[in-house]
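Record 1 of the preview.
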Amino acid sequence: MNKVIEELGKIGIVPVIALDDAKDAEPLAKALIEGGLPCAEVTFRTAAAEESIRIMADKFPELIVGAGTVLTPEQADRAMNAGAKFIVSPGLNPKVVKHCIDKGYPIVPGTSNPSDVETAIELGLDVVKFFPAEAAGGLKMIKAMSAPYTNMKFMPTGGINADNLKSYLDFNKIVCCGGSWMVKKDMVAAGDFEGIKNLTTQAVDTMLGFEVRHVGVNLTSGEEAEELADTFNKMFSFEKKVGNSSVFSGTGFELMKKQGRGTHGHIAIATNYIERAVYHLEKRGFEIDKDSAVIKEGRLKAIYFKGEFGGFAIHLVQK
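->
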């Protein structure tokens, strides 16, 4: 998989935007980055698309800006020359795909049926767009269509929103989803970039789904841990479960048999997608202790942040 597409997969959501005026490109890009989505697919449906891409690429080199609705090789060249880092098309035009491959442009062409996917495989691609996602059968169609094509991944776009986002991203053949619900055209026209920033933040929070899983409390011995668990059972009917290094009291408290991470203990935060969470949290400036990673069956299951927060260590855990 191309490195640009891999990074889009870590981000999880690609805002799909159509700009009628290039003056909106800079404040919109800033809103997306500050909201937590440092990427954008700028569609070539408008005359302002090329200049908008150029502005975004020049002002915000950290933004992964791509060109969408690319229908011709000439449009692909214009987009990449303006600073686009990837190309997206609504359908699969072999002429456009071959041109992009020959030029070294990352391209994600649209597909909606098995014949499209087989053409993409023949052209050497391993990631395709699925468009229009909901109208073309949605997640059920992607699952059915992907079964014979074990190495193909999908980027569904069209009808994706906050309500169905997680159902799509839960399927392991989906790299990321394209959507426009956080970049509403009327908000762009009104210059409401603060509102777009807030919707973008909400989209990221919805995707990651952070929840407190449990609080770990450092105690001095197994006896002390069991005694506290018995007390919580008497007080709140929390079930006691004794393990090798700790005693769980219900699901909310892990009572450590000896000093563990953190001065007082640790806090476990569950997330829908731990690897995406690591990416986004590092972008927010938090350091992750890579040596603390817990890997099971080749997948990251838990990992700690560096440092303490109010005397507690904090770690992420995969839901």
